[in-house]
Amino acid sequence: MQAYSAPSAAPEGDARIDLVGLSRDELTAVLAEMGEKPFRTKQLWHWIYHQGETDFLKMTTLATGLRERLAERCIVGRPKVVTEQNSADGTRKWLFGFADGNQVETVHIPEDDRGAVCVSTQVGCTMTCRFCHTGTQMLVRNLTAREIVGQFMAARDSYGEWPTPTDETRHLSNVVLMGMGEPLVNYDAVAKAMKIVMDPEGIAMSKRRVTLSTSGYIPNMRRCAEELGIKLAVSFHAPTDAVREQIMPINRKYPIAELMRAMKEYQEIAGARQYVTIEYILLKDVNDSLADARELVRLFDASGIGVKFNLIPFNPWPGAPYETPSIKSCQAFAEVLTNAGYAAPIRVPRGRDILAACGQLKSASERQRLSRVRAREAAGIADPDHAPAEIS
Ligand code: SAH
Ligand code: SF4
Question: What is the best residue among 106, 118, 182, 221 to mutate for testing ligand 2's pocket, by most ligand atoms within 8 Å of CB?
Fold first, then answer.
């Protein structure tokens, strides 16, 4: 394993620019200010995103003078690794910290010959789905493109997977935007970050290996299809508005019929070969009956959308108001879908022992903060930083 020495952020009072997360044009502008020609952008990009180099002085294709000036003015940063935990099943989870003290969790889920890095897009989440631990987090802000790309790069540091290997030999072969936060609410930063990750001269992730999971925030779905064309997963979770509304407040604003139209449009733009993954959490006695499964079949048979299901038995977290159905009832539910001709694997939870499975992410800082709040409440003292940040 490779230890890395990148600065986690420019120290306070340090005016150096972190180059990670800048678009090519922005990088060209930084170089232009230093009197450099645009062709330098390509070289620098290659060092940052292909080689994973964080030390300008080692960027040997650049003139020595330029390397020194870059080191004076810029950094190639990473989020700070606050903790790293390894699950018995090989899943690795990091708690990453940013310059303002906020933290997010990122997970690597290894498979035999590949692996997905599950990246967060916000600190917390404003969607407040009732089954999701992240949704209970009060402190919320959007992550920047740098913070989103930085999670993936720091994960690659942790496995020493630099320079960028060929597609076939990568352990960190896929990116799934399924960590903390609703990616389509923070669309601009997510799109900028994914364009960097997919740039063929850097990390070079193909769009087939990037999946965005949304709770159904319709306004940015079309742009995502047009501008990124990445795979779409939708957290569907209930076949009727009545049940979906109860577990996902977003359904009141964007109900099922509109969501179906948006998914259809996504597929029309991204290409019919691009299946939409329908994620379906199984909550005991809430949405797991055979009648629910039959209703899903009816809905999607009539929709003309090419879909695959992904059934996720509820992953419990402390204080959660739901229970996980038995394996048998999950299988019976899956059978209704497979008999109707749909792929419907039941997702085996990964990293449950380190609270890294779907819906279990929540920054440790928040866990600590809440325990402080409770201690203060018990002592009758008001919490000064209780108000959550607004997200438009
Ligand atoms: N905000 C996005 C992506 C992050 S959540 C979204 O909601 O799609 C990733 C997946 O985990 C979603 O399908 C989400 O519904 C699911 N999930 C959330 N809480 C869960 C839990 N406790 N158990 C199992 N899956 C959960
Ligand atoms: Fe947010 Fe997704 Fe969790 Fe819902 S399931 S609260 S959208 S992270």
Answer: 182
Q: Among 82, 53, 1, which residue's Cα sits nearest to residue 365?
A: 82
Cβ(252)–Cβ(292) below 8 Å: no
The β-bridge relationship of strands 92-97 and 80-86 is antiparallel
The per-residue pLDDT for 4 is 40
Domains and CATH numbers, the chain: 17-75 (1.10.150.530), 80-366 (3.20.20.70)
Between 361 and 218, where is the model more confident? 218
Tens-digit pLDDT profile for residues 252-299: 999 999 999 999 999 999 987 789 999 999 999 999 999 999 999 999
Q: What is the pLDDT of residue 321?
A: 93
Compute CA distances 382 → 9, 102, 365, 367, whole Å.
32, 21, 19, 18
CA atoms within 13 A on the CB side of 284: 11
Q: Determine which helix (DSSP H) or strand (DSSP E) holds 134, and give its type and residue range.
A: none
Catalytic status, residue 358: yes
Which of 105, 147, 161, 182 is the catalytic position? 105
Report pTM: 0.90
Taking the CA of 127 as reference, the closest ligand is 2
What are the DSSP E strand ranges found in 237-296?
A: 276-282
Q: Residue 137's pLDDT is what?
A: 78
